[in-house]
Amino acid sequence: MFENIKPMDIEKRSFAIITELLGDTQLDPENELVIKRVIHTTADFDYVENLVFSPHAVGKGIAALREGCDIVTDTQMAKAGINKTILGRLGGEVHCFMSDPDVAAEAKERGVTRAIVSMERAAQLSRPCVFAIGNAPTALISLHELIEAGKLDPALIIGVPVGFVNVVESKELFLDSPVPHIIARGRKGGSNVAAAICNAMLYQIMR
Amino acid sequence: MFENIKPMDIEKRSFAIITELLGDTQLDPENELVIKRVIHTTADFDYVENLVFSPHAVGKGIAALREGCDIVTDTQMAKAGINKTILGRLGGEVHCFMSDPDVAAEAKERGVTRAIVSMERAAQLSRPCVFAIGNAPTALISLHELIEAGKLDPALIIGVPVGFVNVVESKELFLDSPVPHIIARGRKGGSNVAAAICNAMLYQIMR
């Protein structure tokens, strides 16, 4: 009943099955490992169509991570899922300000989401950052405003919030943006997808 | 373009949209909030069909959590996603043994997955537990063996690993089990789904 397979071979076999199931579907070679890792994480082949990449977004993300850039995310789940061992070896770290007590206090006082305050904090980091947004559309909207106002110049925006209120629209903000971006069009996405995209890039640098 | 909505109202509005999109689909009232929270987490309506509940699994899970049982999970992501504030107020905590150095060492020595060793550790906990498995089919297989051997009597098994190798089969092990279970049939699932199911139960106890 069960396939007898060594622990270290499970992932390789999974990717082989995904490739088989993709059949004749052609993937852009630069984006292929990102798309396949998202499918590996979700078992959802809709991401073949949903994921949109600005020109050389993956290459630019990999270059930034290789130079030791940090990752900012909007959930503790994405932070938990990102491979911090590889990121750390490259000189980077993951930031998530969502649970900081002063972020919560400021958000409550201003009547805005914690995600907005978190992104404003992140814009003050002195290092270049990849933003991996898997949950809050307000984080993406805030990032868009900070970029428009010239207050932020991110290395890459991974915009993959999931949900039903303002999610689709927040992602569409970036579709024509000159900022390097990887967006999951539509309602789907999530912290797991955000982490998977980061890891797909990290694993291409170092395994 | 964006719906103007207060942060505290976003979740309520999301659930209203999910209800609207479900249309005439009838959900078992006992399972409704679990199914809707999984859809809220994934934007994937396949879970209406995929999620299988043993009789009163949700009620039994809620009863166990209310009495202060612990939750054991197979990923740091699920641990990060579970509402530990509510769980703690009820007297429970979340365990994830996957990253423990001695678990990794033992798994390597025996040539088995860390998930198997983690579940064996969990079976030694003296407290009743809900198991929330979102990643490793070998964790589910191990739990099934421990139960069959009379070494484990879990309060509830949430079996929602995602993937392509032994995943579907590992979940089917529980479909006829007398042990209370919530299973996501097929390839889909994930740490986010495991956490969402735990939180759906925790939120029904306390908000």
Describe the structure.
- The structure is a homodimer of 207-residue chains.
- With 207 residues, chain A is of the alpha/beta class.
- Chain A has helices at 10-22, 32-42, 47-50, 57-66, 76-81, 84-90, 101-110, 114-123, 137-148, 167-172, 191-205, and strands at residues 51-53, 70-73, 94-95, 129-133, 156-159, 181-184.
- Chain A is globular.
- Chain A binds chain B through residues 1-3, 5-7, 10, 13-14, 17-18, 40-44, 75-77, 79-81, 107, 111-114, 138, 141, 162-167, 169-170, 186-192, 195, and chain B through 1-3, 5-7, 10, 13-14, 17-18, 40-44, 75-77, 79-81, 107, 111-114, 138, 141, 162-167, 169-170, 186-192, 195.
Topology of chain A as a string of helices (H) and strands (E): HHHEHEHHEHHEHEHEH
Could you say which overall geometry of chain A the principal axes of the C-alpha atoms support?
Answer: globular
Biggest interface and its residues per chain? Answer: A-B, 45 and 45 residues
Strand line-up across the major sheet of chain A: 1-6-5-4-2-3
Helix content of chain A: 40-55%
Give the biggest beta sheet of chain A. 6 strands, mixed
Query: What's the number of extended β-strand segments of chain A?
Result: 6
Which oligomeric form is depicted?
homodimer
Low-confidence parts of chain A: none
Separation, N- and C-terminal Cα atoms of chain A:
31 Å
What class, by secondary structure content of chain A? alpha/beta
How many distinct helices of chain A? Answer: 11
Radius of gyration of chain A: 17 Å
